[in-house]
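Anyone else keep sequences and structure tokens together like this?

Example one:
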Amino acid sequence: MVARMTASSSASRPIYLQNLRQFLVRVERGQDRTALRLQAAFAVVDIAILAFFLFGPYLRAGPTYLIIDYIIAVWISLELIARALVAPTWRIFFRRFMTWIDIIILATLLFPDVLFNFAFLRAMRLWAIGSSPLLQHGLRRAGYAHLLDVVRALINLLVFLFIVTGFVYTSFFYNRPGEQGFVDALYFTVASITTTGYGDITLPGTAGKLTSVVTMIVGISLFVRLAQAVVRPNKVHYPCPQCGLQRHEQDAVHCKACGEMLKIPDDGD
């Protein structure tokens, strides 16, 4: 019945909406040259949005800050509309984690003076790059497909670093002049994640202590995950058709879990 409803709803859409949706699906999930170029362009925009947040302390005193802020808000609004068109149903659209992250980011851009404490969530845009097919295809083309797990673990660590730095900055050091507040937040975050703990910069109150505890625990976990990805033997991602095991040796002929015959393509395929 769901398939019938989906087919009937898609059939009732105008032709131009169906063509637009097919194009957006191709951009989001496709791996042809045009789709990958567009994904790369969107990744550059995501990095630029993150850079705007990082350099925000230098711009927020002038009118340029609000101009760029609202331009980014329009861009994210268009992305949300595009993702809504691509999603099979509204329920699936609103169940996606990045949908709510982008909605919160959009709110921080539209009301920067009220919701500045949530601006650190803009770092999650970098995490979306690591989850896209662009990263896997780019590493394969460059001959570094075996480093996919390492790069994704590194991206997760960087995203966490930026999120914690942004949270500490907007919650504790936002009123410090110029770049001093952001640098202090970054310094505290790196010292906490690496468990160096110099103690020259600390967060006040109970909220500061809880923030430090969470930063150290999660930061160490991500460091361990990155170390495991570095020292782990190189394997390829290829789901076994019988048992679903995802990782296999590069020259594997049979699945080591169930013995199913595998047909793992070469990197050049």
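And example two:
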Amino acid sequence: MTDSTPIDPSVPPSGTGCADCEAAGGWWFHLRRCAQCGHVGCCDSSPSQHASAHAAASGHPIIRSFEPGEDWFWDYRTEEFAEGPELAGPQHHPLDQTVPGPADRVPDDWPDRLH
């Protein structure tokens, strides 16, 4: 890991859902994983946008999608897709986890609440 590519491939994800939404009883649309510390946060379309808030607060600028079938990285510094190594597993949230999620906290009007 270097300052120009702050990625630690040995760190596992912090959990299966957005850590901040879980703590606050919220819900998310899609999930993103910090490539440096493993913090799982919700995407910028989600109501609380915890992944980008984590990047701003921590100085950890690179995330990776935590959605099944997606392996892209994003660099908040450049606002562009980035390259990165294979990260410690799991690579995505559980396949039976709903999107949006978690199912019991998603409001009926969820599409109207996306950014």
